[in-house]
Write a structure and sequence with these properties.
Helices cover 33% and strands 23% of the residues. By secondary structure, the chain is α/β, with parallel strands linked by helices. A hairpin with a 2-residue loop joins strand 9 and strand 10. The chain binds iron/sulfur cluster and magnesium ion. GO terms for molecular function: ATP binding.
Length: 331
């Protein structure tokens, strides 16, 4: 089966005072057609930088892809020009962000913003584009579509604006949707509705989705596969069942322990001590999680763990596993 997206050894660097620091450091993963892949980690772990790299929307003159490959439907796109990317962005791959107010244009009506993207990628009349916009707004569950289509973003609630962003993102029926913290800014009931909507649209359009989140609850709800990132690297990757029933990386285990659970009464939530190292303070060798890891060993300071398969479709980057592998004679 052809992959929808294949990222191989991707490195994305940022220029800080004339020196390049890598926010995404040798990351490889793939997304199959029709699957939802969650990318999870705290702020500053490289999740958003990775998706901006795929879209080639890194801040100009500061962020750049310095190595690796990005293949979309079998074609390498990492060296595409801005013109080439414009053909793909919004049409084949589209993106929704956390805060819809910053991505919607306040001076244009909802309808004109949806029509614009449809007209950019399709040779159809304005009337046909409006017709499609109306259908899209219905598809994403907007009430009173005939009125709202001529309203401005500020007239709508946060949840409604996020529905509009989803309508814009799926206007050209992309095969891949990247959703970066799509529900973080919304209240809990609206979050659930938006997640349900994404799932419904994914099934209707059979798209692939990359869902970036710091919330494992969202992952459990929606994803097929999960990637856990820490400090610019993937530390664990597997399917959603294995991740929840058999998490292996110490970081994943701590993330799990910090999810509020309805079935267990706890006095305090376990939160992870310490912070993600900043780009400038990233250790050159050893495990980047070392300072916060309850299982850290002396060698974690000097040996950099590699992502390796520990069981079928379950990869972990941690020396606890490399040690047991080498004892078993597996390299
Ligand atoms: Fe912890 Fe060492 Fe594993 Fe890193 S390599 S996660 S520090 S045990
Ligand atoms: Mg982010």
């Amino acid at each position: 089966m052809d992959l929808m997206l294949e990222v191989k050894n991707l490195k994305t660097g940022f220029d800080i005072d004339g020196q390049i620091y890598h926010a995404v450091d040798d990351v490889s993963f793939s997304v199959e057609p029709g699957k939802i892949v969650g990318i999870v980690g705290e702020s500053g772990c490289g999740k958003s930088v990775m998706s901006l790299s795929v879209m080639q929307l890194l801040p100009k003159g500061i962020g750049q892809i310095t190595g690796g490959e990005i293949k979309f439907q079998g074609k390498n796109i990492e060296n595409y020009t801005n013109n080439q990317m414009n053909q793909i962005r919004g049409k084949d791959i589209s993106m929704i962000f956390q805060e819809p107010m910053t991505s919607l244009n306040p001076v244009f009506t909802i309808g004109s913003q949806i029509e614009e993207i449809i007209l950019n990628h399709n040779k159809i009349s304005k009337a046909e584009a409006r017709e499609r916009a109306i259908n899209l707004l219905r598809q994403v569950g907007i009430p009173r579509v005939e009125t709202i289509i001529d309203e401005y973003p500020h007239q709508l609630s946060g949840g409604m604006r996020q529905r509009i962003m989803i309508a814009i993102a799926i206007a050209c029926q992309p095969q891949l949707l990247i959703a970066d913290e799509p529900t973080t800014a919304l209240d809990v009931t609206v979050q659930a509705q938006i997640l349900e909507l994404l799932k419904k649209i994914q099934e209707q359009n059979n798209m692939s989705i990359i869902l970036i989140t710091h919330d494992l609850g969202v992952v459990a709800e929606l994803c097929d596969e999960v990637i856990i990132m820490y400090a610019g690297k993937i530390v664990e990757r597997t399917n959603v069942d294995k991740l929840f029933y058999d998490p292996q990386h110490p970081y994943t285990k701590l993330l799990m322990a910090s999810i509020p659970r309805l079935d267990i009464e706890v006095d305090t939530l376990e939160t992870i001590q310490g912070i993600v190292p900043s780009l400038k303070n990233m250790p050159k060798v050893g495990c980047r999680f070392m300072d916060r890891c309850p299982s850290a060993m002396p060698q974690c300071k000097t040996i950099t763990p590699k992502l390796a398969e520990i069981t079928d479709n379950h990869e972990v980057a941690c020396l606890l596993f490399e040690a047991s592998n080498s004892e078993k004679g597996v390299s």
